[in-house]
Design a protein that fits this description.
Elements: H1 2-7, E1 12-17, H2 18-27, H3 31-38, E2 45-51, E3 54-57, E4 71-81, E5 90-99, H4 102-117, H5 120-126, E6 130-131, E7 142-143, H6 145-164, E8 168-169, E9 175-177, H7 178-184, H8 186-189, E10 198-200, E11 203-207, H9 212-220, E12 231-240, E13 256-266, H10 271-288, E14 294-299, H11 309-326, E15 329-333, E16 343-349, E17 355-364, H12 367-370, E18 375-376, E19 382-383, E20 386-391, H13 396-407, E21 420-424, H14 430-442, E22 447-450, H15 456-465, E23 470-474, H16 476-481, E24 484-488, E25 493-497, H17 499-511
Parallel strand pairs: 8-12, 14-15, 21-22, 21-23
Antiparallel strand pairs: 1-2, 2-3, 4-5, 6-7, 9-11, 10-11, 12-13, 13-20, 14-16, 16-17, 17-20, 18-19, 23-24, 24-25
Helix pairs in contact: 2-3, 5-13, 10-11
Length: 520
Amino acid sequence: MKHIIAQAQKFERFEMPREAALKHFGEKGEKYKVELITDLSEGSVISVYRNGPFEDLCKGPHVEHTGRLKAYKLVSIAGAYWRGDEKRQMLQRIYAAAFETKEELDAYLKQQEEAARRDHRKLGKQLELYSINETVGPGLVLWHPNGARIRHAIETYWKEEHFKGGYDLINTPHLGRENLWATSGHLDFYKESMYAPMDIDGINYYAKPMNCPFHIQIYQSSSHSYRELPLRWAELGTVYRFEKAGVLHGLMRVRGFTQDDAHIICTPEQIEAETIEALRFSLNIWKTFGFTEIKAYLATRPEGAVGEAARWEEAQDSLLAAVNKEGIKVEIDEGGGVFYGPKIDLKVKDTLGRQWQTTTIQFDFNLPERFKMEYTGADGRKHRPYMVHRALLGSLERFFGILIEHFAGHFPLWLAPVQAKVLNITMLEEDYAAQVCARLKSAGLRVAADFRSDTISAKVRDASLEKIPYLVILGHKEKESSTVSLRLKGGKNLSGLNLDEVIANLKQEAAERRLTGFYS
């Protein structure tokens, strides 16, 4: 790389018709490039970049020459299946980072070091939160007691907020008949991401890749008037999508996951207010989890879209009005919407400044038409309702992975699987430690104890590795005065505390879902 940069090799762009490109790279023995070009439609024009003797398929653009590259570092090497398919060749991929200045490069490398320390796969094993193994199958998550406890806290909060926000909760099956997926269009447009059907009583059933058709069936089970709308239905529904083994990645890319799905069915007159409320609702929940830097991306009508242009315009205006009302930065992706409706994606920044795509608010002009959804309007006539898909966290699995890395495993009290751990200094305090432990548990706190005949420093070290928010340390002094001492994250110690006050403060901290500790 140093040699190439010193030569200031130019990046030259040229185009070739598909057939000429196949011949050109075929003669050079470039079988991988030939395969990529073969997949393109006939008549395609291929853009190629050349620098020195090297040629590659690329849309570009590039800098003028290699001499413009200043601060860079080769960071790792790893195997990668060709096109993410585990049945294909294993190739070697070299990873590098490049920035305009050394300061920017150093900052990036420091961030990457911290990201590696926070890797959810490493912390998931260390904290016994979840596992994925070959016996069950790649991409299928086993939630351990600690992880399931956090998941329960997330789900409980999620459900409470949805009830407050005027949503009703529903539950739907994991399987559906073939005709359901044919009507929805999934068998036409999404079949490659669905698992093979199961023959039940001579009829094909498919594991669901999405919850929407089931929600529509609930809507279709009775007639509806404009007076009933809007309907806001939410479900923590587990779905199954085929992902190639080469792209599976911890909790971030799995094959079975629980979507925090919601569908809003409303009249055209209600759509703007519902969109604004859905966005406000999403922002409130993200802030509770400690994500405050949020940016919106609005994808508008593409070519070949279904639905009337006027409805698209109305929907896009509603989405834009919602983000403007909340004062969120928005980036417009002209023509970037999917064929069945415009959407807003929210991206949140974690503590390392990394962006994660999370909430989606997606209009759908396709499914209401396919399923002939109707409501009776004020004029007594039948009308087609508007339908909005809204995934807030995205999926519980991926969100949990983001959360682990965001907090580096140091979960706030309301999420922590163990909120406090009681440690006795010597065996003489074991009875008192057991009483304190019982009182903490009876107050509804999640508590563990370590009464081993080991040194207090060893017990503190082990508990610190478990990233427990509060360590309750009890020695002769605490026993004699009927008080407790607390050790906090970072090694801060507080002594001579009244147990009743500690219990009250911890309960308040958990109830308020504080992001920082009461004693911080």
